[in-house]
Amino acid sequence: MTLRARWYFALAVTLWVAAFARDSFDDWVDATELPSLILATSPEVRARDGSLLRAYTVADGRWRMAATVGEVDSEYLDLLIRYEDKRFYSHAGVDPVAVLRAFGQAVRYGRVVSGGSTLTMQVARLLEESGTGKVGGKLRQMRVALALERRLTKDEILNLYLQLAPFGGNLEGVRAASFAYFGKEPRRLTTAEAALLVAIPQAPESRRPDRHTDRAKAARERVLLRAVRDGILDDDEAQAALTERVPDARRAFPQLAPHLADRLRAADPLDMRIETTIDAALQAKLEKLAVEAVAGQGERLQVGLLVADHQTGEILASVGSAGYTGDARQGFVDMTQALRSPGSTLKPLVYALAFDEGLAHPETLIDDLPINIGGYAPQNFDKHYRGTVRMRQALQMSLNIPVVLIVDAIGPARLLAAMDRAAMGYEIPPPGKPGLAIALGGLGVSLQDMVQLYAALARGGVALPLHVTGEDSAEGQRLVSAVAAWQVADILSGMPPPPGSPENRLAYKTGTSYGHRDAWAIGFDGRHVAGVWLGRADGTPVPGAFGAETAAPLLFRVMGRIKPELAQLPPPPPATLLLSNAQLPQPLQKFRSRSAAFVVADAPAVDFPPDGAQVELLPEGLLVRVRGGKAPFTWLVDGLPLARDQRDRATILSLPGRGFITLSVIDALGRSARAKVQVR
Predict the structure, then answer these.
(1) Would strands 63-64 and 171-172 be described as parallel, antiparallel, or unpaired?
(2) Where do the coiled-coil regions begin and end (predicted)?
(3) Residues designated catalytic
């Protein structure tokens, strides 16, 4: 008889003696010092539907994921118990029948044919990380198994096995194995998958399917044939399972929203299961879209995307970069949190404050002329001036002079106070004193806070911090009146969509920071708000990056990933004044800034036709007239000069045809103005 056969004989004798010394045996079992039953499991960050966004290894680098009987496929459990320990639910931790059978086989064949370990004994071994070949170790496993059965329920013992069973390499437990080999939770395993996961722990390294596919397949076959023999499966089911491919490589564990997961993990390192409001399907779509957005755009262009439900404040998707890597794009930087210049995306808040304070109305006229306020002489992005325009046009065209005049009237501190009420973080460049330049993006804010601001406008002027875990219990802060918020939303919903995008009246605004370092687009419908940032993580310029041309089309694609149709914006509040400029009260007809005296009054402006007008083409041509400026004048249509050195303020231009044109006039000092009109 071999040595291993002899220790089976010793175990059989031990059990037989124990039966005649019950009291002493009970005392011996009760005195067992158990190892810790609290397992360190992989911290997990989960989506709103409970699916896994990201998991982390335990301290020693192993994947050991929490699992319970209720979270595992029932067929897997049936196969496991039938194959490993068919009397699991009836024995007390040690199965005398199995031990005696193993002893009999060892005596008959002179070698160990089958083991006598129960699932509970395997749990005891795994808890103590003890070996299996020595008699002393086997006796210790039996003692611990007997003690476990007295202190735990059968399901609790199974739960320990489901988390500790080895599956090769650094994989422990059925959930980790299911993700690594099948890329899914073990709730709905196929018959073949379940059989493979039953087979691997018996010899986890030699049966690893990613290294020893043939051995894994053979072990799976033995489990399936045993199941047929025991009546768990019929022949057809087993044959179908045998044809299923065995995975020959490990899959990556889920890593959706990695930047967000890292932040949440760092904020609460002791929370092993972090539940979030993230929509896993939407998150996956937007991460793929982010990769597409930067493809072919150079190795340094980066993107940030964020989507929220502005009615609840729940963040539904947060894409920090196009790739969670340390490459030239610096993908490890979370661009939803980085402080960047917002460009023109703060302008809607400025207009909302002006409307809220009764300083202006969407139809109020305001001058777009050169100004110099205490040495600060801002210019429009295109260096042109439009003369007198309506507030609605000024915001839609993103003109700089009007918004600076408004901030000069309300004061920069008023704008910052509104940002504080919106719970926005911001950073003002040295020397730290806010000036008029903040209206044009002269401060640093994050994409998440900008989306939070637009969510307040979409919510009727009530600011509520966006949140990604639990329910935000904070009460909303009134940022602006419901009327002012609706007026701004109405203006933004009249923005023309980018070429090729759907005509869906999305309320949105774009922005480009100084030096083309940041391109933004933020928008909302009646339910969702989304934000897009494009640029370089290191803050260097991106030549040719414009919010309207690069970020806006991406914003419309983001909204298309959320749902096929936009939710309608709400109707105007009852107190809204839906009037033309001529019907407004006199103080609201023309905006008067405190710095009106600093406006360069003699700058040129297209007096006729006014911007946005529809005019008839006369037989002799188009009548045009300039106001202000210094002669001689040059007139251009769509950038082509049609009349030079004009001393008169009125002239007739010969046009090649009808349609929409951009009419420009330049005076002797190089100052310009333009108007967009339709010639019929």
Answers:
(1) parallel
(2) none
(3) 84, 344
